[in-house]
Design goal:
Helices cover 35% and strands 17% of the residues. By secondary structure, it is α/β, with parallel strands linked by helices. The chain is globular and about 65 Å long.
Length: 418
C-alpha cells in the first residue's frame, strides 16, 4: 500500500507520511511509531493494523457508567455576550427541591457504578442556593458533586461548598479588560473583581486544584499568551478552553460584529500554544474537541446522546443537550427526550434516532482518517451551522483534520512542527 502525506485510516491506525518517515498511530494501543515503507507492508502481512475494537451501547439501559446533570435554573446574574442558552433572558425559573430530590432518587435507583451529579444550568446554578444546600446535605457522602459557576457567588456560600468537598469550575475569560467585555454582569457592570475574589477564596481555602473554563474569540485567541500568563498568575491548575460558537446570544453579537469566532488558523495556533504552556508549567489543558484523542470510538460524540448522562431541567423535562435547555430554544423538539414524573420517562424512539448520529452514519465522515477520534463533533453546533443533524461543522472538521497529525507527531518528535 502506498502511503502519502494525506492521513489515512488503516484498521485502527492513522497513517501518514512526512519528511521524518511514516507515522503510525494505533488508536487501540494509544501509541505511535515512526517507520519506513517496508515496515508498514510487513506489519500488514503479519496481522497488525487491525480494526478498532469497541462495543457500543447507546441506551440508558446501560447503567454501569451513568451521570446526572441538573439544570437548576435559567436565571442568571451575568450578561455574557455569547451565552449559549441566553441565560437570564426568559422565565427566570428555579428547580424545586422536590423535583431535584426526585431526580436524584431515580438516578440512584438505576445503580450506576459511581454517583456523579453535575449542578449546571442555562443560567447561574448557585442562585438556587436552598436546593443545592438541601441536596448536598442529604446526599453528601455518597455523591461526587461537580458545579460550574460564573464565580459571581456569595463568599459565605462558596466557603460552604468548599467545606462540603464540592468540585467547582469557574468560568473566566482572562484579565479584567477581556472578562468585563465578554462576561459583564447583567446590568452591564464589571464582573472581574468579583470572580477574582472567589478564585482567591478557593485558592486559599480549598485543597482542590483551581479549574476554570474559558472561551476564546478571534480577538482573544491572538493574545492567548497574555491570557495564559494571567491564569498562571492567579494560580490556575486546569483550563478547559473552547472557541466561541455562533449559538445563543452569540448569534446577535456576531451579527453586530462585536466579536467573532476564531479563524481556524488562530484557533489551531492558540491550542498549540496552550498545550505547550501546560507542558512547560505543569498545568492541565482540556480542549473539548480533543476529548476522544486517547479514547477513540464509533459511538456518538455527546455523552447525553449516547445515554451516558441524564440531563433534567428546572421544570422536570429531560434534554439530550446541555445547550438546549428548554422550549425557548428552536431545537427543543428534537432534543427533548422525556420527563420526570415520579420516575424517568424516556422517549426511546427519539433517543435511538439521536444515538444514530455516529461517524459511520454520517456520509462525509465515513472515510475520514480522524473519524474515531472526532466522533462527528457536537450535534447541536453542527445543526446550527448546517441545518442538518447528520452533517458536520466545517470548523470542527477542519480543526480535527489539521490538529491530529500534529499531535501524533508530537508523541514521537517531542515538539509541534507545522
Amino acid at each position: 500500500m502506498k502511503i502519502d502525506h494525506n492521513p489515512t485510516l488503516i484498521g485502527d491506525s492513522i497513517v501518514f507520511k512526512d519528511k521524518e518517515g511514516i507515522f503510525i498511530y494505533s488508536q487501540n494501543r494509544k501509541k505511535v511509531v515512526l517507520v519506513n515503507d517496508f515496515i508498514v507492508q510487513e506489519l500488514q502481512e503479519k496481522g497488525f493494523l487491525l480494526p478498532l475494537s469497541e462495543k457500543f451501547e447507546n441506551s440508558f439501559d446501560n447503567k454501569k457508567s451513568l451521570n446526572l446533570m441538573l439544570l437548576l435554573s435559567n436565571k442568571c446574574i451575568m450578561g455574557c455576550r455569547y451565552c449559549y442558552a441566553n441565560g437570564g433572558a426568559t422565565n427566570n425559573q428555579m428547580m424545586s427541591f422536590e423535583l431535584a430530590e426526585m431526580a436524584v432518587e431515580q438516578y440512584i435507583s438505576m445503580k450506576p457504578d459511581r454517583l456523579r451529579i453535575n449542578l449546571f444550568g442555562g443560567g447561574e446554578p448557585t442562585l438556587n442556593i436552598d436546593v443545592i444546600r438541601k441536596l448536598i446535605d442529604k446526599y453528601q457522602n455518597s455523591v461526587h458533586w461537580i458545579l460550574t459557576t460564573s464565580g459571581v457567588i456569595s463568599q459565605s456560600f462558596l466557603r460552604w461548598l468548599i467545606n462540603r468537598n464540592v468540585n467547582i469550575t469557574f468560568s473566566i475569560d482572562g484579565p479584567s479588560f477581556i472578562q468585563n467585555k465578554l462576561r459583564p454582569l447583567q446590568n452591564g457592570k464589571r464582573s472581574s473583581h468579583i470572580v477574582e475574589r472567589s478564585i482567591n477564596i478557593w485558592k486559599s481555602e480549598s485543597r482542590k486544584p483551581l479549574s476554570i473554563r474559558t472561551t476564546l474569540t478571534n480577538e482573544t485567541s491572538i493574545i492567548i499568551r497574555d491570557i495564559l500568563e494571567y491564569f498562571n498568575q492567579i494560580g490556575v491548575d486546569s483550563i478547559h478552553i473552547e472557541p466561541l460558537y455562533n449559538i445563543g446570544r452569540a448569534i446577535v453579537s456576531v451579527k453586530e460584529e462585536l466579536f467573532q469566532r476564531p479563524t481556524l488558523d488562530n484557533w489551531i495556533n492558540a491550542v498549540i500554544i496552550a498545550l505547550k504552556w501546560a507542558q512547560n508549567n505543569k498545568k492541565r489543558v482540556r480542549i473539548g474537541e480533543l476529548i476522544y484523542f486517547l479514547n477513540p470510538g464509533a459511538s456518538s460524540y455527546c455523552s447525553p446522546m449516547r445515554g451516558k448522562t441524564i440531563i433534567v431541567n428546572y421544570s422536570g423535562e429531560i434534554t439530550a443537550c446541555s445547550e438546549v435547555v428548554d422550549d425557548n430554544n428552536e431545537n427543543w423538539k428534537l432534543f427533548h427526550i422525556g420527563n420526570l414524573n415520579s420516575k424517568f420517562n424516556f422517549d426511546n424512539k427519539k433517543i435511538k434516532f439521536l444515538a444514530n448520529r455516529t461517524v459511520d452514519n454520517m456520509e462525509f465522515c465515513k472515510n475520514c482518517f480522524a473519524k474515531y477520534l472526532c466522533r462527528g463533533g457536537c450535534a447541536h453546533k453542527a445543526l446550527m451551522e448546517t441545518g442538518d443533524l447528520f452533517l458536520q461543522s466545517s470548523f470542527h472538521c477542519g480543526f480535527m483534520k489539521r490538529i491530529i497529525p500534529l499531535l501524533i507527531k508530537r508523541m514521537i518528535i517531542g515538539e509541534y512542527k507545522f
